[in-house]
């Protein structure tokens, strides 16, 4: 017995984060600074503490659409190269302080061109910030460039991902409201990425059901699913000792398609009723390729360590469970096999072994 992991101990664990939005993780103090510098006067308050509270309360509505509205303020102050570099640098610093050793952070370049920046300038500024933050704080950060599913620029963004894939862009994503905007609207971009041997994930199965997941996998060829919570709709007898998987759920599990789950965010947007009732408990028990993520650290008021701590409290998870989630994430990352293996065997497993050993010593 090693005891139940505490939040303090979890912060020391080497963690991996695959689903985190750059414009969803700003420090409130930074938002205030950038708004002042840019002459942006749309903030609900300029007090950092009150601003943090406003973001979490506005996001906790049970509606994905309402949740997404909060981004007008973070995106609004991220319209210069200096601002983008600062936000990326601070993101790397904050994640490293939380014990994250590898992260994939996503953002939509098309949202940061209002003052005249080109898509390339946006990407280069973010890459510079992450490179500097990574060097200073000892974290590896890969970026995902995201296309907005309600717009028509996905091919441009896909080409951007390929153009910068040797400079730190590790993949592509589409995001935004799912209902009415199926991933198949961007099929040409996904076919291009496949021809270019590029990696991509798709937001699917969060606010819309199984058809979104099916299209993302079978039509578009997604490597991973952003959220994928609604895959449980294809599982019956969920409360029994032997749940029954439908064809799609079985396919997702058999093919080891990673699910980028974000428990706190999913509760906020109404994709799950509570952490204790989140499908992650069932999916972990059924050995789906589940990963744990933050989605938007500012809006959800959560760090990756806190996400893990919530799961420990809800499901009684121990160190072996947390290591399982972490290794799942590292296996599913969009960097090379050798790099993933080095982090798993050289950082993650030794780090968790030390924590488990320390816990044993504490109890004896």
Automatic annotation (TrEMBL):
Cofactor note: Binds 1 zinc ion per subunit.
Sequence positions that bind substrate: 21, 23, 176
GO BP: adenosine catabolic process; hypoxanthine salvage; inosine biosynthetic process; nucleotide metabolic process; purine ribonucleoside monophosphate biosynthetic process
Cofactor(s) listed in the protein's UniProt record: Zn(2+)
Cellular component GO terms held in the UniProt record: cytosol
Keywords: Hydrolase, Metal-binding, Nucleotide metabolism, Zinc
Ligand binding (Zn(2+)): 19, 21, 203, 295
Pfam families listed in its UniProt record: A_deaminase
Important for catalytic activity (site feature) positions: 227
InterPro entries listed in its UniProt record: A_deaminase, A_deaminase_dom, Ado/ade_deaminase, Metal_Hydrolase
GO molecular function: adenosine deaminase activity; zinc ion binding
Active site: 206
HAMAP family: A_deaminase
NCBIfam families in alphabetical order: aden_deam, PRK09358.1-2
Membership in a protein family: Belongs to the metallo-dependent hydrolases superfamily. Adenosine and AMP deaminases family. Adenosine deaminase subfamily.
Function of the molecule: Catalyzes the hydrolytic deamination of adenosine and 2-deoxyadenosine.
Official protein name in the record: Adenosine deaminase
The organism of origin for this protein: Thermomonospora cellulosilytica
């Amino acid at each position: 017995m090693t005891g139940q992991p505490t939040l303090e101990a979890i912060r020391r664990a080497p963690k991996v984060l695959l689903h985190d939005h750059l414009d969803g993780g700003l420090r409130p103090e930074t938002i205030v600074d950038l708004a002042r510098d840019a002459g942006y006067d749309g903030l609900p308050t300029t007090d950092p503490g009150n601003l943090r509270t406003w973001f979490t309360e506005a996001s906790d509505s049970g509606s994905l659409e309402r949740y997404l509205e909060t981004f007008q303020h973070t995106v609004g102050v991220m319209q210069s190269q200096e601002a983008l570099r600062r936000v990326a640098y601070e993101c790397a610093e904050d994640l490293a302080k939380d014990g994250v050793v590898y992260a994939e952070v996503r953002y939509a370049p098309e949202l940061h061109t209002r003052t005249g920046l080109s898509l390339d300038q946006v990407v280069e500024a973010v890459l510079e910030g992450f490179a500097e933050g990574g060097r200073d704080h000892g974290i590896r950060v890969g970026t995902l460039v995201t296309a907005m599913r309600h717009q028509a620029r996905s091919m441009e963004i896909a080409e951007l991902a390929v153009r910068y894939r040797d400079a730190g862009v590790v993949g592509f994503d589409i995001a935004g409201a799912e209902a009415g905007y199926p991933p198949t609207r961007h099929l040409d971009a996904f076919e291009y990425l496949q021809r270019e041997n590029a990696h991509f994930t798709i937001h699917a199965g969060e606010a819309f059901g199984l058809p979104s997941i099916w299209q993302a996998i079978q039509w578009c060829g997604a490597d991973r699913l952003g959220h994928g919570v609604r895959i449980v709709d294809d599982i019956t007898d969920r409360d029994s000792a032997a749940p029954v998987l439908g064809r799609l759920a079985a396919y997702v599990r058999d093919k080891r398609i990673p699910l980028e789950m974000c428990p706190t965010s999913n509760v906020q947007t109404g994709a799950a009723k509570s952490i204790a009732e989140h499908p992650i408990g069932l999916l972990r028990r059924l050995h789906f390729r589940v990963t744990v993520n933050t989605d938007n650290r500012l809006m959800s008021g959560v760090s990756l360590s806190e996400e893990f701590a919530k799961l420990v409290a809800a499901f009684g998870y121990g160190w072996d469970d947390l290591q399982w989630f972490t290794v799942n994430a590292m296996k599913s990352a969009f960097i090379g096999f050798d790099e993933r293996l080095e982090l798993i065997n050289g950082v993650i497993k030794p780090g968790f072994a030390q924590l488990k050993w320390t816990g044993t010593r504490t109890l004896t």
